[in-house]
Amino acid sequence: MKAKDEQLPLWTLPNRLCIIRILFIPLIIFFIEREYVAFILFILAGITDGLDGFVARRFQLTSKLGLYLDPIADKLLVSSVLITLTYYHRIPLWITIILVCREFIINGLRSFYALEGITIYPSFTGKLKTTLQIVGISCILLDRNLTNLLGLYVLYAALFFSIYSASNYISAIFRPTKKIELETDLTADPTQSETQK
Q1: Cα gap 127→78, rounded to integer Å
Q2: What was the pLDDT predicted at 173?
Q3: Per-residue confidence at 7, pLDDT binned at 50, 70, 90?
Q4: Domain boundaries, the chain
């Protein structure tokens, strides 16, 4: 995998899609009060998330850069929209604080161990948490009244899995043994994990 990764160009199509997803962020924030516009932009950003993983696996374009860039793009997208919706009093502040702080803590730990040569692959519950966040935010963006309450309930579920997956990460990291396993084998092919958050 290492030799193959070195042969790939830096900006593969999946990595470009990650950058496009990041570029959607200021547009979504700008149109946040125009509900349907913000909703459509957020959905388009979400499509790039699914598309980059599919392209990476289908055409064997998985790279170490993509392994880190993909979750970073997701965290920036979700955290930015959560903070903006909280500013407009559409999401309780305490929910946003917990969700955003969790992302900074876990990604900080992941980056630290990456410098030590240890790759922490995302878990299933982490992926489920991200999916619930996207669904919940989409509902809140879609309509201020009709689907806002549904979106909040979905975010409550995301909050549960956010705390649960974070506890798994932290307990695995500080386990007495130095082998870190987060509901997945660290020796597994990263192509199976790139799109999981």
Answers
A1: 13
A2: 73
A3: low
A4: 2-192
